[in-house]
Amino acid sequence: MKRLSYLLAGVLVVLMLAACSSDSNANSEADSGNSGSGENTSSDTVETGSVETSVEATGEEDVTLDFWIHQTGEDETNAYIELIDAFNKEHDDIHVNAEVIIDDGASAYSDSINAALVAGNLPDVMAVDGPYVSSFAEAGVIQPIDDYVDDEKKSQYVDSIIQQGTYNDQLYSLGAMEASVMLYYNKDLLEEAGIEPAESIEEAWTWDELMENSKKLTTEDRYGLNLFMNYGVGEWLTFMGAPLAWSNGGALISEDGTKVDGYLNSPETIEALNYVKDLFAEGVVTDSPGEMQFEEGNAALALGGPWIAVSAEDAGLNWGMMPYPYKDEKVSPSGSMAYAVTNNTENPEAAVELMKWMTNEEATIKISKATGMPPAQKSAFDNMEKFNELPWSIMKEQVIETAHARPATPAYPVLTDAFAQSFHAAALGEDVESVVEQQVQRVERELKRFEE
Amino acid sequence: MKRKKGIQRIVLYVSLILLTFIFLFPLVWMLVSSLKDEFQIFRDMKSLKAFLPPAPSEVEGGYFANYIAAFQRVDLMKYILNSLIYTTGIIVFGLIVNSMAGYALARFRFPLAGFWLGVIIATLIIPPESIFLPLYVLVYDLGWVNTYTGLIVPFIANAFAIFLFRQFFLDFPKELEEAAKIDGCSQIGIFFRIIVPLSKPVFATVAIVLFINHWNDFLWPLVVASDESMRTIQIGLQYFMNEPPIKWGQVMAALTIATVPMLLIFAFLQRYYVQGLTHTGSKN
Amino acid sequence: MKGNSSTAKPLTDHDHYKAPSEPSIKKVPPKRKKRRRSQAFQEAMTGYFFLAPALILLGVFLLYPMGAAFYYSFTDFYILKPDDISFIGFENFSYIWQDAQFRQAFWNTVYFSVIVVPVQLAVALGLALLINKKLKFRVFFRTAFFSPVVMSLVVVSILWTFMYNPNEGLINQLLGLIGISPQPFLTSPDQAMNSIIVMSVWQGAGFQMMIFLAGLQNIPNHLYEAADIDGASNWQKFIHVTLPGLKNIALFIFITISIAAFKLLVQPMIMTQGGPLGSTKSLVYHIYETGFNYRDVGYASAMAVVFTLIVLTITIIQRVLIREERG
């Protein structure tokens, strides 16, 4: 196939030169054409990533690993790059080429993966969002790594991270960070309203308490609660919202991940969505909050990710955090980006070596510091003082005790959109039942694909 | 009668000024806001100061603080350079290939000419996004992923450009070509020596159209130029839109940076552009 | 005139309508029979020589992927399993009729097109007429109206997302100055598409205005002078001289805007991600999402095929209507 490219370039050049040769105008045009194609062919060979600049290629490396990470906040990306540089220095026999793929918050990163997948162009190791592990595993796009990770190693990670990386009893991914959603609060505003915050999982607010207190905290010029609807209709709504359904005894999909009818539209799940609908109907939360609504004191409470702690601190807010509110069972959001070895690699062992490096205690601490996210290593939790005192201890408690992974199903991309759309429809005051019913049909169709 | 004319004139100018405001206020707001800090952007928005540049006393970090910050956060220079390289590549090759095709369809009589014109026009209808996947596989097989070639070659031939060229060449006086033929120049010589130098307007028009189209490409560079070193400006913009912290001032600076090359190109070619368009719809 | 082309497509019949009046030896039809075979052959060779690069490139990078997409539309191609493709006949096509999202996207696209096409045409014509006069600062006005085109759709979409922001957006702040409460421009299902329409017309009209301007300058002045002698009013001149003179251009613009409108993607992708409640999800966006986000290339390709057929049909209908009208 490559020959075709030269053929095309050749045809073009010949065409250019075939013009009246005495003509200066035609010549200059042909020249620019030539230089253009020369540039192109030379760039064919440039395939290394941005990290490459900081690494001296010795030419003696036995193994080269291509590694895709997604680009997020600056500090986080820099932390990854430093870790990879250190890995390359430490390992004479393995060289890692990292590509930082843009993540536009929507689908840019997964678009890149999908395109590469079809072309058979996947890297050796790639970052994968936790709940997507199962769909990649089901399709055989990533490979099990049990052979390279013993039980002792596994036990060093927090359970939820091993859970998120496991599909059909096999381990596929390792992550450096967990995530969670906390109920943040503005200390001044709560004090003013005389509301006591919860300071441990035992004291977590119930749905009713959340509703009541949010109403109390809502005034003419501020909302009681912020659900960060400005993130758009996407993974966030499932990540933040699904525990409401679980806490009420509902589900998104059957345990084995093959059926949504009777689960996504179960009375318990619908009730949870109607609770969301009520929150919006009561006017305690808006579907279009400003970027910094909570940080600027325009919302008293906020169900947000660990990064909110960082931005609230930066904004100089007097803030605190509470556990995720519950109905019957105490559950909380879990899962984050992790690493997996693709079936494209010839060196799974080296690839796992890299994954372990990226998720060891030192790395998890580094990344946790850069992102505010809870680390995925138990020892890191113990060694980071922050997590042993209030308020961060609540997050640690929550990650270890109530974290609930999102469902493992190959139909996850459609399922999560189905839930997010239903959540959003509830927020806009639509009839929850009919919206959910429509989404159920969509997911059922997708699930048929994976029936044997 | 004269008085009526006068009133008409006033109404005309008032509406023109109103329209100018409608068409320019976002641009002005973008430019002006790119010079302000966050706090001032939001404060000024509550009054018409939103459209006035900040007073020197109001700027703490200097007028270009947002620009400096934007360039520090992201390697915008490299992205712009990448975008310039590949759009220039498309334009240079596109002008040659499409003008030749347009010329063929306007001047020569050959079997299936009408058929090919129909096919070319019909390809305008296809949403490019719907063929990106098979196209990506093809480009990958050619070894063009993360190369300028992969960004350029698939988009050299452009149906709209061919059509514009054809419309223009239909009107091109034949006498000149006849004269050149008598001088003994080949058809190719005639084209590059006689036709091309005399067709600046249409070349400028097509260049602008191609530039506007491809300067804006998002999805294709995203998947084909996934490597950071190949990233283009539009993908760089996403960074400011989506990677926290989202600073409006920096977004405006980045948008301005992305706009400047287009403004420059247009300013340079505008003289020809209007002439070139004259032929667009004159016979279709 | 094009007897040798077997499948004459629309747009080809006027190809050489000038030829009879030209003194060209080669192209005057009555003399065709006398032309030596070799000369015709040579001309055909030259023609193909000029056309070949474009044809090859279009063939390889457009028609071939199109063919592939057409083939995929009859399969269950799923991105995660690119090596496991089976032929499933018309299953994808029959699902289109059950797909509520497709229906919604279809009507959204129709709604967008039906409004944008005439409004943008009218705005562009209006602008062109306004500044096709002896004016002070004419070039300034022209450049002002054209500037959104130069700014590009992506930049403009990002910019307007900030301007439409429900809380801190510029437009709501300006409306606040005249006492109008903040509008949920992009966050309400009732307003989102209209907000996108307003921005699209604003962004695109300048381009067509330029083409109209060029057309206005092509209308011979003596027609207006003759009308003046007949004592025609401005309105009569507009109806009887200007409009007929612009007819071809207007039709050209009409067809290109229609096609572009049907291909709506960038604005909802950047501004609303198709929401709220799918109210701005366009057909092309739905196709893109199905193929890339949900990995269902087979079904996405089927929708792309149907989409192409729909637009092709509309374009042909437009052509036929236009031709009939022309008599």
UniProtKB/TrEMBL annotation, chain A:
Biological process terms in GO annotation: maltodextrin transmembrane transport; maltose transport
Swiss-Prot/TrEMBL keywords: Signal, Transport
One cellular component (GO) term of this entry: ATP-binding cassette (ABC) transporter complex, substrate-binding subunit-containing
Transmembrane segment boundaries: none
Residue stretches of biased makeup (Polar residues): 46-56
GO molecular function: maltose binding
Segments of this protein annotated with the region Disordered: 25-58
Secretion signal, residue range per the UniProt entry: 1-26
Low complexity bias (residue ranges): 25-45
Family matches, as InterPro entries: SBP
One Pfam entry name: SBP_bac_1
Family that this chain belongs to: Belongs to the bacterial solute-binding protein 1 family.
UniProt protein name: Extracellular solute-binding protein
Species name: Halobacillus litoralis
TrEMBL record, chain B:
Membership in a protein family: Belongs to the binding-protein-dependent transport system permease family.
Superkingdom, taxonomy of origin: Bacteria
The protein, known as: ABC transporter permease subunit
Database matches in InterPro entries: MetI-like (IPR000515), MetI-like_sf (IPR035906)
Domain ABC transmembrane type-1: from-to ranges: 80-269
A cellular-component GO term for this protein: plasma membrane
Transmembrane parts of this sequence: 12-32, 84-106, 113-139, 151-169, 190-212, 248-269
Organism of origin: Halobacillus litoralis
Keywords, in A-Z order: Cell membrane, Membrane, Transmembrane, Transmembrane helix, Transport
Membrane-related topology note: Multi-pass membrane protein
Subcellular compartments: Cell membrane
Classification via Pfam families: BPD_transp_1 (PF00528)
Keyword Phosphoprotein: no
One of the GO BP terms on file: transmembrane transport
Location, primary (coarse class): membrane
UniProtKB/TrEMBL annotation, chain C:
GO BP terms in the entry: transmembrane transport
Keywords of the record: Cell membrane, Membrane, Transmembrane, Transmembrane helix, Transport
Topology in the lipid bilayer: Multi-pass membrane protein
One Gene Ontology cellular component: plasma membrane
Protein name in the entry: ABC transporter permease subunit
Region (Disordered): 1-33
Assigned protein family: Belongs to the binding-protein-dependent transport system permease family.
Keyword Transmembrane helix: yes
InterPro entries from the UniProt entry: ABC_transporter_permease, MetI-like, MetI-like_sf
Domain ABC transmembrane type-1, chain residue ranges per copy: 106-318
UniProt superkingdom: Bacteria
Lineage, uppermost ranks: Bacteria, Bacillati, Bacillota, Bacilli, Bacillales
Subcellular location as annotated: Cell membrane
Residues annotated as transmembrane: 40-64, 110-131, 143-163, 196-216, 249-270, 299-322
